[in-house]
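Quick illustration, no need to memorize.
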Amino acid sequence: MLFDDVQAPSKPYCDICGAAIDNIDIHEVRIEEKEMTACSICYGDPTVRRIDSKTLFDLIKSVGKRYGYRKSIREVQQQIEVDMKSIEIDVLEKMEGHLLRQPTGKKIEFSVKELLYIFNKLRLQIAGHNNIAFAVAQISERGIEVVIRKDDDYVRV
């Protein structure tokens, strides 16, 4: 038998907050055309903010423009802690008749706490010694997404 040694996890995990879920507590949620498993706390919770890969790509590009693409992820995270400045990015969408994504006029603002949380999550998936240009490439290649849960002190990883 090929898969004899493979074991299923003892408890399923919430795709939003990462907490272990009891079987009674499982909810299936569709967030932006993706089927996700959610616990009862995250199910229908308006404080959960999901940052898809395109928005994350634009955010890290704007961070790279501000702090430099050659700096490592760790250095940029430390500089964000020192500067304590939020970042505002334009929302870009694919429009009919255009090759590239175009600005819609809307803006998304990320607070300092959110930026630090995003960089903590990025450092879990991309090594902290890599530079911002590498992080931008990895976000688009792997389709990395981050889920932020507000009013949670950004502790959950």
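The helical segments are 53-67, 73-83, 112-125, 132-142.
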